């Protein structure tokens, strides 16, 4: 009980910079870009399942945590990719859940270049349960629980070839605002818009480097992620991503037979005084991706994006 009250007090004091949780740093774990651009899943003809977890502010009880899942598959007739998305975020007594579906279509515009258009539709839920926090505090004791839903839509476009992609998207367009006026909403940050780009380049016979960029257009601070991953024989990989709001992400990945990929990253602050992450020892992210070829015995190319 006491630890909940202490955390709630800290969060209220810091509410001007805590309108939402930090976003995942997508650039190092590109296989989860489906949350940023629904067209990305049309770039892969396999069935792909991805889970992503994050624990922020390591060492602080009831600190923000997040989990997300995407699953998509290619339907050869009528030649579209379809997928499902689920997100869950929690901070103290508040939580945010999102469920949705994606569909995308790819067309060839040259022998080597393709254009993919993707769409997203789903529902968001915001919940705040204050029961138990109000002992000794009449203001909290009288605060009613919150449980609200809203619709969300989105779209994205991606130009790509085997070793390059560039795209733009608005993956989250709110169809209405949440009615509650709570200060600690985990996710009510308005519409989102992104520009993303990436490529892969061989470095001799055994190594390759995959630089990437992600620019978030709508938030006030407009975070920019710039990263690069060095890949060894399409298996082991290590990368760094810098975020303009004052974080650095160091990541390790390992791929088994082009099917299973495991990843871990550690996010730490670079001294930006506006960044709440400086109050802890950092944040941890884990990543799992599993792919299944579209047919038994079909070639499964290495998926670097």
From TrEMBL:
Keyword vocabulary terms for this entry: Signal
Signal peptide: 1-20
Superkingdom field: Bacteria
Pfam family, one: PorP_SprF
NCBIfam families: T9SS_PorP_fam
Annotated protein name in UniProt: Type IX secretion system membrane protein PorP/SprF
């Amino acid at each position: 009980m006491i630890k909940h009250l202490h955390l709630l007090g800290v969060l209220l004091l810091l509410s001007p910079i805590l309108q939402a949780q930090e976003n995942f740093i997508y650039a190092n774990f590109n296989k989860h870009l489906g949350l940023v651009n629904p067209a990305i899943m049309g770039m892969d003809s396999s069935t792909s399942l991805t889970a992503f977890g994050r624990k922020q502010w390591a060492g602080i009880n009831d600190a923000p945590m997040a989990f997300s899942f995407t699953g998509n598959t290619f339907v050869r007739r009528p030649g579209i990719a379809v997928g499902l998305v689920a997100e869950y975020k929690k901070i103290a007594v508040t939580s945010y859940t999102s469920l949705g579906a994606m569909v995308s279509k790819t067309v060839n515009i040259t022998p080597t270049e393709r254009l993919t258009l993707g769409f997203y539709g789903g529902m968001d839920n915001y919940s705040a349960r204050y029961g138990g926090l109000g002992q000794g505090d009449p203001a909290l004791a009288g605060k009613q629980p919150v449980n609200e839903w809203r619709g969300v839509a989105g779209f994205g476009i991606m130009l790509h070839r085997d070793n390059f992609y560039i795209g733009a998207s608005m993956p989250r367009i709110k169809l209405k605002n949440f009615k509650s006026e709570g200060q600690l909403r985990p996710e009510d940050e308005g519409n989102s818009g992104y520009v993303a780009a990436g490529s892969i380049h061989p470095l001799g016979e055994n190594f390759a480097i995959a630089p990437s960029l992600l620019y978030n257009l709508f938030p006030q601070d407009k975070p920019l992620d710039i990263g690069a991953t060095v890949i060894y024989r399409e298996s082991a990989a290590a990368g760094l991503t810098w975020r303009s709001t004052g974080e650095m992400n160091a990541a390790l990945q390992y791929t088994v037979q082009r099917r299973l990929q495991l990843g871990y990253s550690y996010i730490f602050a670079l001294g930006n005084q506006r960044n709440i992450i400086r109050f802890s020892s950092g944040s941890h992210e884990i990543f799992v991706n599993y792919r299944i070829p579209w047919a038994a015995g079909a070639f499964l190319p290495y998926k670097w994006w």
